[in-house]
């Protein structure tokens, strides 16, 4: 029976897995809405965005396998790492909550990913640059879709405003981690492979604030920020998510469609 | 996934002497494969078929690129390519996926646009360069009555590459193949 894998996390493998895990976990969260969204059009929109993210994750996992050089596939990384092996930011594993909370989480991440992938198109790593060129086009739709809903809910009824304002307050402390870089990432920045995330932060804040202003929502001040996901220290929600994501492979290892 | 294929130098023996008719036939067969989601379009019309090559030993390599990262049709297209080429007598076939350069609706052929419209799907708006193409003020014409008085109902449609629109004149909802 297949067992949990131990990844040889070279800087490039770790870097690629962090981005792949962000995409997979958020894609999985969005897929949980399938069949449950408040209206048919949103059901399709959330499933479409989940598909984009899972597609991006697949390309990134495949590349992580090549970079590791041990013959591992996308499925090995997705199904055979436990919670502590996952490197995604805590924001993406937070529970869906109501529709406003899901949209707000998507809004915060999409604005980051939009800037991030556009900058990554200039990476000296040809594969990451190619994945970036595909992803940035997809994220542009996510940015527009989420922004329209943030405005509609924020500048909507007292009820919708209260719900999205509460989501904003709860999720904001998870946004600092998006811009976190450790020594291994800084070395990749120096090598021209990775993006200097600190250089994106002001633009991200300005882009997010422009929409929040229109939505009559107050952009929170940056206070104490949650972190840990990049080193495998997760909130209590990820384990439950992985139990569902990995259940079939752990019950019947190697099962295929 | 293999990257940077465009930059790879062709072997000195390319195209292999005597294999041109074989290559032409393989290309023709590959071009008949259709998108499983939009069966009126071939993968050549869509711009998904990037290249077909034939090596000295007669084995065929077909290079395709996905429209969107998560496009679930890619596995199906790869399988159908293998089946179509096998039926045509090619027993050594390899299908490779490349991501770069990123697919764009600019690669859709005029014939493809015409077929889409006849099928009831509004083709992507006129060609525009760069990122602006994604979000310019879309001018989408109703594929049924030709009216430009249309409105977007939803950003995301029945597949990744489509959005849902409605004609304000004939009142028909229709799919719009998004600029990308």
Automatic annotation (TrEMBL), chain A:
It comes from the Bacteria. Gene3D superfamilies: 1.20.1260.10. GO terms for biological process: phenylacetate catabolic process. GO terms for cellular component: cytosol. This is Ring-1,2-phenylacetyl-CoA epoxidase subunit PaaC.
Automatic annotation (TrEMBL), chain B:
It comes from the Bacteria. Signal peptide: none annotated. Residues 31-87 form the MIP18 family-like domain. Coiled coil: none annotated. Residues 133-178 form the PaaD zinc beta ribbon domain. InterPro entries: Fe-S_Maturation_MIP18, FSCA_dom_sf, MIP18-like, PaaD-like, Zn_ribbon_PaaD. This is Ring-1,2-phenylacetyl-CoA epoxidase subunit PaaD.
